[in-house]
UniProtKB/TrEMBL annotation:
<dbReference type="InterPro" id="IPR016071">
    <property type="entry name" value="Staphylococal_nuclease_OB-fold"/>
</dbReference>
<dbReference type="GO" id="GO:0004519">
    <property type="term" value="F:endonuclease activity"/>
</dbReference>
<dbReference type="InterPro" id="IPR035437">
    <property type="entry name" value="SNase_OB-fold_sf"/>
</dbReference>
<dbReference type="Pfam" id="PF00565">
    <property type="entry name" value="SNase"/>
</dbReference>
<keyword id="KW-0378">Hydrolase</keyword>
<feature type="domain" description="TNase-like">
    <location>
        <begin position="49"/>
        <end position="176"/>
    </location>
</feature>
<keyword id="KW-0255">Endonuclease</keyword>
<feature type="region of interest" description="Disordered">
    <location>
        <begin position="27"/>
        <end position="47"/>
    </location>
</feature>
<protein>
    <submittedName>
        <fullName>Thermonuclease family protein</fullName>
    </submittedName>
</protein>
<dbReference type="GO" id="GO:0016787">
    <property type="term" value="F:hydrolase activity"/>
</dbReference>
<keyword id="KW-0540">Nuclease</keyword>
<feature type="compositionally biased region" description="Acidic residues">
    <location>
        <begin position="27"/>
        <end position="42"/>
    </location>
</feature>
Length: 182
């Protein structure tokens, strides 16, 4: 009986040591407001992932890998593929253009509604030195608009206009890849 009492007393004391009240903190509302405001802060983090990173490798015209290992797929653009079994018209030029803009550079990532695609890549608008790479690809005729909702809805009209201007000017892939290269 003495053993049962000793074990019970010991467990009760242990419970007191580890017990933490489940009561909302008075400043809970302030914490939530700080979290909402911090999504666009300059500390380098966003609920989707980093807001800055260094490009380690350019995979193709619209995808890069950061030094952290995360892959980033550009929102609202699609460049021709460059793989051994699928080397599309203008793919190499688009990849080279992307490489020249971002390789080994610190880039800024701006996220939209969805953070990742079905392949686990971060989805972002990517900028280097204040220049948005997604836009530059379209302006120079290295990409076509690819809208996968819900991302990109706010910029879709603008991007379609950039694509139309590149097409009218015969820039990049619009000069030698047929009438509908994308």
């Amino acid at each position: 009986m003495l053993r049962v009492f000793a074990v019970t007393a010991s467990l009760s004391m242990t419970a007191c040591i580890f017990y933490q009240p489940i009561v909302a903190d008075e400043d809970e509302g302030a914490d939530e407001a700080e979290t909402e405001d911090s999504e666009d802060d300059t500390t380098g983090y966003h609920p989707c992932g980093p807001t800055q990173g260094v490009v380690d490798f350019v995979l193709d015209g619209d995808t890069v890998q950061l030094t952290t290992g995360e892959r980033v797929r550009y929102i609202l653009v699609d460049t021709p593929e460059t793989s051994p079994d699928n080397n599309e018209c203008w793919g190499e030029q688009a990849t080279n253009f992307n490489w020249e803009m971002v390789a080994k550079q610190t880039v800024t990532l701006e996220y939209d509604a969805e953070c990742k695609d079905i392949y686990g890549r971060l989805l972002a608008y990517v900028s280097v030195d204040g220049v948005e790479v997604n836009r530059a690809l379209l302006e120079n005729g290295h990409a076509c608009v690819l809208h996968i909702p819900p991302n990109g809805s706010a910029r879709l009209s603008e991007y379609l206009g950039l694509e139309a201007q590149a097409q009218e000017a015969g820039a990049g892939l619009w000069s030698g890849c047929g009438s509908a290269p994308c």
